[in-house]
């Protein structure tokens, strides 16, 4: 039997490794910027073209590399950070595995210019697909200048599955923000297609956070600080009143490295229990300092997941620190013991005899005695008002004469809202609708009309609309039904660009971080198609000059933020999918809420519009809108 196992060529092995480390242009920027920080750079410039697909350039003023180091840095597992296995448990640098440059060079065309401070000439190195094309001495500034062009040029499948430029740029900005937030002692500059997106000079941490996410955040942050022998926790948490469902800025950093940690996230949210509504999130920026021997950062290729040795103890420390911060800054409800309004509580004295309380009352009060005096007490009497008892029963007498002997009827709860439309009006108004509704729902109910002639609508608990159909009793969820109706309307307006915009008297300003502003730019056309009128003001700010007609009363700033965050979460690039996201988000925000009492006309209009939809049975995200209780099932309930 011939041997079938063989060693992979270095070029193939490097491409496999690149698939783990380099997933998109943002991964390249992360690795190169972290290397620049390890090289003790004070200024780092990042320039991207076409969201990094065409070119990524990272320039730093760090230590630089010699000719030999420049050549060795592109070999796999060549690193200056560790020398033996025990060094893995004492890491204080960002990179250490020696895979980043080798992985980048395996899937791109890389040019490196670097010079250490003690040498007059630097080194220029050209590598493409892991092959060194040239190496020569050049004159260049101190530090390193990496230029990465045509990412995934030799892996067409990987390049094909890159997202749209707006999505990839948003990912780049996210990675850039994470690094900038943890290194305020380093100046960062980011340019996209020759446009400056970030200009972050050296500044304190709180000012760095505001420079990244806006000055408005300054009024929302409370400082956290606790120092124990196990861990030191510092940073900021937001006030409970700033909680929102989407778009909260939540960051954990450990020893200068960004990490994701769902367990610690629960510790922070535990401190906000009963302070924020269920399902809403608050922003936080938490920085841990831990002995490197007590953590393991080598469990994930991108080093964003970190294992702690004492996770449960740190959980308790973190939760207690956040609770103490909320209490110290009066962010939790408290009882105000105002000395002026406090009741007079006498001090207890053992020598004083205990006396029962005395009751004071007017012995001259007589409710049946009439007098001109209107005072109560002081020897006067109470004047009873004269009540017209006969008038209370006048309506009953009239009803008995008109309707004859009254029959006993079951009481009707206040939760029901009953339609009072007359039979004649109902018959006339529903005939054209029945034909259309019967066609629209033929797939579910056959060819018979859905609604019975002259059927009345009832509203139950402010949530469901009940109506009679030939097969039994239909229950319609009013909120979901309105979502179905509004979604079809908005998606039609977007695709036909027929959205009606209503101008606002006082334009509102929405301020977005650079990563969210990049996504907003990609959906501006769709927002305009549905009726939003936005004008850019620069620096991630936009003026809302007009809103879609029919959403009056909603907060347009929160609505735009929600649509941007939903687009970021979905990560879709197909235009139709983005349009669907926008229409669904807008429909959910504008739909009638549970508990809203509807008149008969409103219920009739909603039901008519629902059955005019192509798919009235389900919401766009697949939730049930209506259901029917068959007549035979109702009869079974009363069979005994």
From TrEMBL:
<dbReference type="GO" id="GO:0140664">
    <property type="term" value="F:ATP-dependent DNA damage sensor activity"/>
</dbReference>
<dbReference type="InterPro" id="IPR037198">
    <property type="entry name" value="MutL_C_sf"/>
</dbReference>
<dbReference type="InterPro" id="IPR002099">
    <property type="entry name" value="MutL/Mlh/PMS"/>
</dbReference>
<dbReference type="InterPro" id="IPR038973">
    <property type="entry name" value="MutL/Mlh/Pms-like"/>
</dbReference>
<dbReference type="InterPro" id="IPR020568">
    <property type="entry name" value="Ribosomal_Su5_D2-typ_SF"/>
</dbReference>
<dbReference type="GO" id="GO:0032300">
    <property type="term" value="C:mismatch repair complex"/>
</dbReference>
<feature type="domain" description="DNA mismatch repair protein S5">
    <location>
        <begin position="209"/>
        <end position="327"/>
    </location>
</feature>
<dbReference type="InterPro" id="IPR042120">
    <property type="entry name" value="MutL_C_dimsub"/>
</dbReference>
<dbReference type="InterPro" id="IPR036890">
    <property type="entry name" value="HATPase_C_sf"/>
</dbReference>
<dbReference type="GO" id="GO:0030983">
    <property type="term" value="F:mismatched DNA binding"/>
</dbReference>
<protein>
    <recommendedName>
        <fullName>DNA mismatch repair protein MutL</fullName>
    </recommendedName>
</protein>
<dbReference type="InterPro" id="IPR014790">
    <property type="entry name" value="MutL_C"/>
</dbReference>
<dbReference type="GO" id="GO:0016887">
    <property type="term" value="F:ATP hydrolysis activity"/>
</dbReference>
<dbReference type="InterPro" id="IPR013507">
    <property type="entry name" value="DNA_mismatch_S5_2-like"/>
</dbReference>
<dbReference type="InterPro" id="IPR014762">
    <property type="entry name" value="DNA_mismatch_repair_CS"/>
</dbReference>
<keyword id="KW-0227">DNA damage</keyword>
<dbReference type="InterPro" id="IPR042121">
    <property type="entry name" value="MutL_C_regsub"/>
</dbReference>
<dbReference type="GO" id="GO:0005524">
    <property type="term" value="F:ATP binding"/>
</dbReference>
<dbReference type="InterPro" id="IPR020667">
    <property type="entry name" value="DNA_mismatch_repair_MutL"/>
</dbReference>
<dbReference type="Pfam" id="PF13589">
    <property type="entry name" value="HATPase_c_3"/>
</dbReference>
<dbReference type="Pfam" id="PF08676">
    <property type="entry name" value="MutL_C"/>
</dbReference>
<keyword id="KW-0234">DNA repair</keyword>
<dbReference type="GO" id="GO:0006298">
    <property type="term" value="P:mismatch repair"/>
</dbReference>
<dbReference type="InterPro" id="IPR014721">
    <property type="entry name" value="Ribsml_uS5_D2-typ_fold_subgr"/>
</dbReference>
<feature type="domain" description="MutL C-terminal dimerisation">
    <location>
        <begin position="456"/>
        <end position="598"/>
    </location>
</feature>
<comment type="function">
    <text>This protein is involved in the repair of mismatches in DNA. It is required for dam-dependent methyl-directed DNA mismatch repair. May act as a 'molecular matchmaker', a protein that promotes the formation of a stable complex between two or more DNA-binding proteins in an ATP-dependent manner without itself being part of a final effector complex.</text>
</comment>
<comment type="similarity">
    <text>Belongs to the DNA mismatch repair MutL/HexB family.</text>
</comment>
<dbReference type="Pfam" id="PF01119">
    <property type="entry name" value="DNA_mis_repair"/>
</dbReference>
